[in-house]
Amino acid sequence: MKELVISFSVILLLHVPGSLGLYDEFTGDISRFLINFSTRETALFTEYPTGVIVDNATYDFVIVGSGPSGSVLANRLSENPEWNILLLEAGEEPSWVTDIPVACGALEYSDYNWGYTCEPQSGFCRDCMDGILQYPHGRVLGGSSIINYMIYTRGNRLDFDRWAAMGNPGWSFDDILPYFLKLESAHLAIKDDGYHNNDGPLSISDASYRSKLVDVYVKASQEAGLPYVDNNGKNQIGVSYVQTTTKNGKRSDAENAYLRPIRNRNNIKIQKASRATKILIDSCSKTAYGVEYVNDGKTYRALATKEVISSAGSFNSPQLLMLSGIGPKTHLEQLGIPVQSDLPVGKKMYDHALFPGLVFQLNDSIPINLVEEIVNPLTYIQYSEGKGFLTSSNTVEAISYVKTNISTDPDDSYPDIELVMYGISPAADHGVLIRRNYNIDQNTYDKVFKPLESKYTYQVSPMLLHPKSLGRIELRSSNPLHPPKFFANYFTDPENEDIETLIAGIREIQKINRTPTMQKYNATLVRTPLPGCEDIEFDSDAYWECAIRSIISSLYHQTATCKMGPKNDTEAVVDHKLKVHGIKGLRVIDVSVIPVPMTAHTVAVAYMVGERASDIIKNDYGI
Ligand SMILES: Cc1cc2nc3c(=O)[nH]c(=O)nc-3n(C[C@H](O)[C@H](O)[C@H](O)COP(=O)(O)OP(=O)(O)OC[C@H]3O[C@@H](n4cnc5c(N)ncnc54)[C@H](O)[C@@H]3O)c2cc1C
Ligand SMILES: *[C@@H]1O[C@H](CO)[C@@H](O)[C@H](O)[C@H]1NC(C)=O
Ligand SMILES: *[C@@H]1O[C@H](CO)[C@@H](O)[C@H](O)[C@H]1NC(C)=O
Ligand SMILES: *[C@@H]1O[C@H](CO)[C@@H](O)[C@H](O)[C@H]1NC(C)=O
Ligand SMILES: *[C@@H]1O[C@H](CO)[C@@H](O)[C@H](O)[C@H]1NC(C)=O
Ligand SMILES: *[C@@H]1O[C@H](CO)[C@@H](O)[C@H](O)[C@H]1NC(C)=O
Ligand SMILES: *[C@@H]1O[C@H](CO)[C@@H](O)[C@H](O)[C@H]1NC(C)=O
């Protein structure tokens, strides 16, 4: 009951006033306040009592960060009763609100997000709010798996075979498939034999809510030449209904799958609201022996007799390493940080850019009608049965992997574009929230999307899988509480291949929409030009380049900031056992070690890395 009331109030208060035109200009503050209020009022806050903090307490392993990788490690390492584990997490506990799949976009405006933004750069985000690309990132027990969109995709076999070929034995697809199996409990109608399992901690399910549109779209995609596949199975290229990290219509995440069941083990301490500020390293022996952290304004130390593990994620692991003297020598020296190991930390960052500006209009009510769903009391009753609109993963309904005709990859099974199909468009909530998730500014919204508010529309967005443009992360200062500096560097590759690939993705989407099946609903591309692109012939390649440089979103899949690779790889920070080069007793275990841009969203691989690394560590100690 409590759950019902809360879900109702959050969704209602967030979306309806705007949708009904009660205020013209929504300010994010209202959303932020409501989410803030509701999460605080309803947070579990009792499941993980901190108790008395003992300074200089000693453990075998100290793990920093409770995202998917860190939570798996905490769970698996504490299976050994001989080991004492401390898990430190900067954020608080998740809440009822975070269980509601459709609420995820709003969680970006809560304390569960670190709230990072990129440095403003030219060449992209011309029509983004304040010209800035947002980089949301989870700060909560469970990490980004608490605020993410729950899309579950493992990646292409070749991704992992390429990790191995880069000098990382033990990470080929055949090596890591057992770990993908170990972590999941699959509840899927269509799945390939040998690629799924049903007794792991994390629940993977088909969406229990589907629009009429998605069935049409999946059929049309097949008509356009994409086979129907289990994209976590044998072949990746093709179209699939989305597989999600949900269980009975609620979010399945690192906290409820891996931490909650073990929180009472007496050899593990799970300590929230504790932010690591430094890894303690003995500079003579180059050995990590603990961490310094802040809880409630006070500084403490936790000591590790065996290892310190940084699982702080692709942004904060590089930050923590650099604060501790592990990073590019000149950068650290400029900030006055004594250098412990000169490594290319943060120098390379892959990311997945998604173009949210491709919208189609239909002549029938087959897309999701968001406003109708929100005001319908049935929505809330259905949720209590694990069904209905609130169980939707932010309205993402189908995922396709395609290899466009401009890809130069020698392998035919390696896609270069993902098509993310949503049962709505940014007009669906009348500009309240969705446009903000995509960084779309008010002026652009009013011109392009507002006229669509009463129409039947939906969106398919191309996501660039293997960018040639590389981002990077630097420290802003030596103050551990300052956010790092993010340079997304989108579309800076000299050959302009990233833009061209996204345009090739747009052409694939247009092909799907030209099929007889989509034309039964008169699927028509919305032709309102984006501000600043009016003078270019609509639908020309030049037009789409202009449009892509106007509005863009990250899909938050940053990797490689602490890249895995052998010692002679000049980009590598950790080796294939995820040990930091040049420092003893220290590993980085999270998505920052992934050496390639994944052909996937990254949460699946984050769990897998945690599972695989747990076995590597147990092996190293003969367990
Ligand atoms: C908005 C959003 C949507 C996404 N949607 C999807 C999706 O649909 N599908 C998908 O596959 N992937 C998605 N992702 C990406 C995916 O969630 C991440 O790749 C994944 O969670 C990474 O896991 P991780 O273990 O590396 O670390 P993270 O999830 O980043 O967790 C790191 C944890 O460490 C904590 N931490 C950081 N610094 C410190 C410190 N100094 N001291 C203590 N604790 C610290 C953080 O608070 C956080 O809890 C999304 C991400 C975001 C942000
Ligand atoms: C969220 O809550 C915290 C603590 O109560 C408060 O400091 C912060 O200002 C709130 N933020 C918003 C946007 O209301
Ligand atoms: C913990 O160790 C540090 C460094 O040795 C020391 O300065 C501090 O006083 C110790 N704290 C306690 C409570 O013993
Ligand atoms: C790719 O296909 C598009 C049409 O969708 C065509 O215009 C273009 O010439 C093709 N490019 C190559 C390299 O074949
Ligand atoms: C199809 O869509 C176009 C453009 O929106 C519109 O002009 C036309 O009337 C529609 N046709 C039907 C049959 O709905
Ligand atoms: C939608 O348009 C198609 C043709 O483009 C037409 O056959 C169909 O009847 C129209 N449907 C409605 C509900 O108008
Ligand atoms: C790195 O060393 C391995 C052998 O350990 C060798 O096979 C590889 O070619 C080397 N790579 C580079 C870039 O030198």
TrEMBL record:
- Enzyme kind, highest EC tier: oxidoreductase
What's one GO MF term for it? flavin adenine dinucleotide binding
EC number(s) of the enzyme? 1.1.3.7
The chain positions of domain Glucose-methanol-choline oxidoreductase N-terminal read 138-161, 313-327
So which residues are the signal peptide here?
A: 1-21
Per the Swiss-Prot or TrEMBL record, the active site comprises: H557, H601
> Which residues does FAD bind?
V140
Q: Which PROSITE patterns match?
A: GMC_OXRED_1, GMC_OXRED_2
Keywords in alphabetical order = FAD, Flavoprotein, Oxidoreductase, Signal
Q: Per the entry, which co-factors are needed?
A: FAD
Question: Which InterPro entries does its entry note?
Answer: FAD/NAD-bd_sf (IPR036188), GMC_OxRdtase (IPR012132), GMC_OxRdtase_N (IPR000172), GMC_OxRtase_C (IPR007867)
Supply the PANTHER family for this chain.
Answer: GLUCOSE-METHANOL-CHOLINE GMC OXIDOREDUCTASE (PTHR11552), RE36204P-RELATED (PTHR11552:SF208)
Q: Which family does it belong to?
A: Belongs to the GMC oxidoreductase family.
Q: What is this protein called?
A: Salicyl alcohol oxidase
Q: Which organism is it from?
A: Chrysomela tremula
Encoded by which gene? Answer: sao
